[in-house]
Every structure is written in structure tokens, then in C-alpha cells.
Amino acid sequence: MIEESEYVKRREKLAKSLRSNSIAIILSASAKIRSNDTEYPFRQDSNFYYLTGFKEDNAALVIVRAKKAYESYLFVQEKDKEQELWHGKRLGVKRAKKCFHVDALFGSSEFESKIEKFFTKSHYLYYDFKGESKHQDFLQKKAKELLALYDIAPFIERMRLVKSPAEIELIKKALQITKEAHHRAIQKSPALAFEYELQAEIEYAFKKRGAYSDAYTSIVACGNGANTLHYIANDKKLRKDALILIDAGCEYEYYASDITRTIPVSKKFTKAQRELYSLVLDVEKEIISMIKPDILRSKLQSRAEELLCQGLVNLGILKGEAKELLRKKKHKKYYPHGIGHWMGLDVHDACPYKDAAGKEISLQDGMVLTIEPGIYIDKNDTSVPKRYRGIGIRIEDDILVTCSGHENLSADIVKEIKDIEML
């Protein structure tokens, strides 16, 4: 778990990055209507959670920055017996004062009146107007009275790039649970009939271990479905001669995992499946081996494309010289996406890939990213040898950059052909 002292340090770091005589307002997420009077399960805004650790809606964090000091204020919902009867207990102002180390804590009903007073001492506003809030109109009106308006999100998201030891432990816990889910899927798949049955087994494993939410909608794609990158229908039959691409990860205490494995329905890889799978696995291993501080993601991307393109030539899927094919981007037909992305509070962590000057950010100790090469060959692609058509393969792991190189946080989730077949 993350201690309150860590949240205090984050707020202090953010405050120091703001201009003097400014005010920063970070709002919680709002409850989302699913249908009529039913709501989606509430999920806190990641930036707000990063700075507070508070999981309720209708809340706000306010930082007022003077010339040499700053003060932080938290607004939370007041206790309300009728609302709590329907929606559950609230922390309330009195208990919140004991939990959060801020300069003052107020009820949410006081938000606009208090902000009016804070604005009298501020010339600049930091705020994320992309969010949704019942205070949106009020804040837009007040912003017109100030000298300048800044988007607060990039300031927080830069901070989120490097994970603390406590954050890394939560990601590791998420991956322990995700490991159990993927191994369960490998073991159960031969006896199941539909993709959604396999999805149910995976998400059962998540919830049984206390990961009440998946980090994203699980992809369980058998056969040609794997060639749709964001396939989430999960409603087709499991064909005994096909592979299943499973892209599934849980969220534990707001921290994500993101794992893809590709397995045979019939317990054994065919020769063609084995050839393509081995190509993707070899590329993934080499790219992971390159990860260390100061290397650029673009270098990982270009190397992955070189290896995959040469592999496709070797298998007769692409024809010609690999260098020329790369220059013409012919390999993109079979590998259209990036080598990976940041991961943390969001599965695609909302952290920058370039600095304020537009320069690519190199990898640093404490960053977490995915590595996920793939090959996707549509069943109707007659330019490809018939034995490879309808096969989609992706292998994805979650990697921590360390001072001495890297740590594969998901190394215990099987991916070698012999281990998959044995399991």
C-alpha cells in the first residue's frame, strides 16, 4: 500500500512546479450513468488518485501557491444518511481530517465559496478542462478573471513517469494475479467451447484474488479474430486447429498489468504456428534485452521492425530485400502497432513520450513499459503462403527499467512453446 507520506511528497513536488501566486484545482472523477438510473462501477480519476489516494467522487484537491510557500486543501462529500443508504458509506469531513495531511479540509458543498476567496490571491489557474464536473461553468467563468490558464494534467503526468517502490510492489501484485489467470486460461482452454467461457475463467481468477477490476476489456481472440487488434466481442467458437490470442490484465489497487499470450486450442502448436510464434518470441526477447537507462523507445521500435521484417522474408511472407521492404514500410501490413507503452495507474499510462522541448524521453530507472511485438496475417491474404493465413500472434510482457538494466516483472507467466504445451 502507498502511505499518506508519499502522497504528501507528490503534492509538495507538484506545488513547487507551479508559478507563484497561482491556484491548482484537481477534481475527482464523476459517477457515470450506465443506463437510466444505474451507474457504472466508480473508478477514480488517475491524476486525482495519484495525488490523494482518495477513492470517492465529488471531491477536489486545491493547491494555492504563494511566492515562497504553498497550502493544500481537500474537499470531500459530507455525511448524508439518505445517500449512504443507497450508495454506501462516505468517509465524511470529520474522519477525512484524520486521514489526509492537508492544511485544511472542507465539505464539497463549500467548494465554490472557498474557491472565490482563493482566487482573490491568485493570478494563474492550473486546471484540466478536459474533465467533467458540475463546477465546470463556474471555473471557466473565474478563469477569465486571471492572467493565464495552464493545463495541470501534463505536470502530474510527468511525475507519474517514474514509479516509486510502493507503486512497483502494487504492479507486481497485479501481475501475480494476472499470472494465475493466464495459467488458468492455458489449462482450461482445451475443454471450453467459446471465447467468452475463457474470458470468464480469466476474470474469475482476477476477482477471486481481490483484483475487482480488469485493467481493460479482455481480448480473447481465436483464429482470425486475433488479426483485429482491439477485438473484444469474445463470442466466437474455439476452433481446435487455431491459436487463441489472450490480452488480459487485472488492476490491483488502481495499478494495472497488461499481458498478452498466444496459445493453441488443441494443446500443441502446428508447424506453421510454431514458426510464426518463434519469430515473435525471439524478437520480444531481443528487445527486452536492450532495455536499460538512457535508451530510446524509438530505437526499440526500429530494431523490432528490422527483426520482424527479416523474419517475414525468411518465412516467405514478404518477398524482396529486407532493407528495401523496411524503407517502403511493407512490414507494417503485418505489424502495424508500436513496440509498447508506459504502464501504471492506467494500462496505457497517461505519461509523456516527449519533453517540453519536443525531444523524446529516454528510459530511466523506475519507468515501467510494455514490450509487445506481434504478427497478424488475415485469413483472406492470398499473397501469403496458405499455412500462415488466419494466424495472429502477440506476446507482451511488463518491464521495469532499473539502474543496471531491466527486470521483466511478468517473467513467471509462461511463454516458451514447451512450457505452454506442458501446462
Overall average residue pLDDT: 95
Number of strands: 19
In terms of DSSP E residues, the strand content is: 15-25%
Find the CATH topology of the largest domain: Creatine Amidinohydrolase
What's the overall geometry? Answer: globular
**Helical amount:** 25-40%
Tell me the name of the CATH homologous superfamily of the largest domain.
Creatinase/methionine aminopeptidase superfamily
CATH class of the largest domain: Alpha Beta
Could you explain how this protein is built, in words?
With 423 residues, this protein is an alpha+beta fold. The chain folds into two domains: 4-159, Creatinase/prolidase N-terminal domain (Creatine Amidinohydrolase, Chain A, domain 1), CATH 3.40.350.10; 165-422, Alpha-Beta Complex (Creatine Amidinohydrolase), CATH 3.90.230. Helix content is 35%, strand content 19%. The protein is built from 13 helices and 19 strands. It has helices at 4-16, 46-52, 81-87, 92-99, 111-119, 136-143, 153-159, 165-188, 195-208, 271-289, 297-314, 322-327, 417-422, and strands spanning 22-27, 33-35, 38-39, 60-65, 70-76, 104-107, 124-127, 148-151, 213-214, 219-222, 243-248, 250-252, 255-256, 259-264, 368-371, 374-377, 391-394, 397-402, 405-408. It has a six-stranded mixed sheet, sandwiched between helices. α10 (271-289) packs antiparallel against α11 (297-314). The longest helix is centred in the middle third of the chain and has 24 residues, at 165-188. It starts with a helix and ends with a helix. The relative contact order is 0.11. The model has no long low-confidence stretch (mean pLDDT 95).
